[in-house]
Specification:
Ribosomal Protein S5, domain 2; Rossmann fold; eight-stranded antiparallel sheet; Alpha-Beta Plaits; eight-stranded mixed sheet; alpha+beta
Length: 652
């Protein structure tokens, strides 16, 4: 069987979901095109998606073009869901990037194109809405060349643009233009052209297909998804511009290599895991090894029910082979889990950590436990939501990327779980990093140490992004394994609240001393002593508080440049030299998360509604001046008296 896994991407309202609907109509999957405005599209199945007219979660559907099965992943286009877009891209063979003929290249369009080129995803560009008033094909082509890439080749020509009578025809090959574009990656073409060697149109088109599949050139088509104009050409070119996966069921397959890219619940409440199979095959009743990369964990899972995408729905199968999409039932698989073994073909996208925390509580006290279970379910389905419950206060909180994500969670809790919840004001999550080296040790029987344990630590700064690195200078066999586990677990727990109350990251903690007295020493002695010694070492090392920044892309009209630079400076943003674009400039840089909403709110006024802003999670930067203090959930071990009184009450 032959398969291709494709995605449709676009800035909000460029017509991505409308194009998906039209493709499904043209291929016989549906009998009538749904409408985003009417909320009856096949891929936007969430109630909030229908209400807002935007795609929130990636959905999957399949159709056939000739003898090739196409699995189409309809991905989000809103800026708050860019992380899910990037993760969905990791399993695709090709992408259709939709651009509005009226609005042209928009902020999110550029972000998406940058991501596609960075990941090397073959892509074709579709200029949509050619029937709309204000459509300007030539202008959009120039914007594409200036703002996205000049490695494009136009395949269609337009007449009567901007009205329902718009017509699309094949553009004849301009040998000069094609050779100029294609020879950048094929010197033979240029050499033959210079030496007057005849280059056939068929040879040029074959080279276009090769370079498109290699993500070195980007064909441009145009049409109207709403009217179905130009969609036939997209379907025609899918098999030529995107690599086709081939497998032969009668031949022995290689070792299994697959990845989970989507998790959801069925109508009956069963958990479904969507899996892209890269190598080998999945078979019913087989035992599969699972690698959980974020937890460095391995386990196995038996397949009891297996389906694949088929004709707009799913169908039960005994095997799913390489290149196809599988759906597993009743598993605890998470997005990002690898089935079988790792493969160079699997593009693992690191999950960015949300920079905003919101406290959440059930409005009805009797719904508290159900809210906890619901948030755990939502976290399993969406790795871009992080839920935690404080072990001491039992308060529930979620980490998110933006307001739309919060509204999605609120609506989902209400519609799917029947729970109404209260949300606190958002809190930007800072972190602490050690400045220098610090050490501390307390010995068993020493004055002031009430615990039957000896512990010593050394803390050193680690490289940015390395998290907590835990090491031992003591021999592993010098301490019983339960004591070793208690020490390591308590170190991780203690560092969730540093000198200023924020989580401490990017440090090396070395266990330098241990000791115990058998049989009186318990694991509790180590759990209680570790915070005292560790925090003393951290205090000696000292920490700086860092705040999260967004990487932003800003497009503004020419008349708004000075105002934009003023506001960016006032909001403590960094910015590059302005880049000239059609009718304006673009700016890129880093912006504190705490000031991102302010820029969004004022953008409309200082650009006259013509500005576009797109943001992505960025790095952490140190806070100048007095650092913000976060309230602690338990006594600070540096206040020894209060800490020991707290421990005494627990023991009692």
């Amino acid at each position: 069987m032959k398969t291709i896994n494709i995605g449709v991407l676009a800035h909000v309202d460029a017509g991505k979901t409308t194009l998906t609907e039209r493709i499904l109509l043209e291929t016989g999957i549906i009998n009538a095109v749904g409408s985003v405005d009417k909320g009856n599209t096949i891929t936007d199945s969430l109630e909030l998606e229908r209400k807002r007219g935007i795609t929130i979660k990636a959905s999957a559907v399949s159709f056939w073009v000739g003898d090739v099965k196409i699995n189409l992943i309809d991905t989000p286009g809103h800026a708050d869901f860019i992380s899910e877009v990037e993760h969905s891209l990791s399993i695709l063979d090709g992408v259709i990037l939709v651009i509005s003929a009226v609005e042209g290249v928009q902020s999110q369009t550029k972000v998406l194109m940058n991501t596609l080129t960075d990941l090397g995803i073959p892509s074709m560009l579709f200029i949509n809405k050619m029937d709309r008033l204000g459509a300007n094909y030539s202008k959009v082509i120039e914007e594409i060349k200036l703002s996205l890439t000049d490695a494009v080749i136009e395949l269609t020509q337009i007449s009567n643009e901007g009205c329902p009578d718009v017509a699309i025809a094949d553009r004849q090959i301009d040998i000069d233009v094609w050779i100029e574009r294609l020879s950048a990656h094929n010197e033979r073409l240029l050499s033959n052209y210079i030496e007057n060697v005849t280059v056939q149109d068929s040879e040029l088109f074959t080279e276009l297909c090769v370079q498109t599949q290699g993500a070195r050139i980007f064909p441009v088509l145009a049409g109207s998804a709403a009217l179905g104009i130009g969609v036939d050409r997209i379907l025609q070119y899918l098999r030529q511009f995107f690599p086709v996966n081939l497998h032969h069921e009668e031949h022995e397959e290689g070792p299994l290599s697959a990845i989970v890219f989507k998790v959801e619940k069925s109508i009956t409440g069963e958990r479904l895991a969507y899996i892209r199979v890269y190598e080998g095959f999945l078979a019913i009743r087989s035992e599969v090894d699972i690698i959980r990369t974020d937890a460095e964990e391995k386990f196995s899972f038996k397949i009891k029910k297996l389906e694949t995408l088929e004709l707009g729905g799913r169908t039960s199968v005994s095997c799913v082979y390489s290149g196809d999409i599988a759906v597993l039932f009743g598993s605890d698989l998470r997005i990002g889990d690898i089935l079988g073994q790792r493969s160079d073909r699997i593009k693992v996208i690191a999950f960015q950590e949300p920079p905003i925390r919101i406290q959440i509580a059930a409005r009805q006290i009797e719904d508290t436990h159900r809210l906890h279970e619901a948030l755990e379910d939502l976290t399993a389905e969406d790795p871009f939501i992080q839920y935690a419950q404080n072990a001491v206060t039992r308060e529930m909180s979620i980490k998110i990327f933006g307001d739309i994500q919060k509204e999605v969670i609120e609506e989902t809790l209400k519609s799917e779980f029947g729970i109404e919840a209260n949300f606190s004001n958002p809190e930007v999550i800072c972190i602490e990093r050690p400045v220098s080296t610090g050490s501390s040790v307390e010995f068993i029987g020493e004055a002031g140490n009430p615990f039957y344990a000896t512990i010593g630590f050394r803390i050193e700064p680690g490289a940015a992004g390395t998290g907590l690195q835990y090491r031992r200078e003591v021999e592993l066999g010098s301490l019983p394994l339960p004591f070793q586990r208690s020490i390591k677990d308590t170190v991780e727990d203690t560092l969730r609240e540093g000198l200023h109350g924020w989580e401490v990251r990017d440090l090396v903690v070395t266990l330098t001393h241990t000791g115990y007295s058998s049989p009186v020493t318990t694991a509790g002695d180590f759990r209680n002593l570790v915070p005292l010694v560790l925090m003393k070492a951290l205090d000696e090392a000292s920490t700086l508080v860092y705040e999260p920044y967004h990487n932003y892309f800003l497009r503004i009209p020419e008349s708004s440049l000075n105002k934009a630079l003023y506001h960016l400076t006032r909001l403590q943003a960094t910015f590059s030299d302005p880049i000239p674009e059609p009718n304006g400039y673009s700016l890129q840089g880093a912006l504190p998360v705490r000031n991102t909403d302010s820029l969004k709110q004022m953008l409309y006024s200082f650009t006259g509604g013509e500005g576009f802003l797109s943001t992505k999670p960025g790095e952490y930067y140190p806070i100048e001046g007095a650092p913000p203090e976060k309230s602690r959930s338990r006594p600070n071990p540096l206040n020894r008296k209060a800490y020991l009184l707290h421990i005494h009450r627990i023991i009692q």
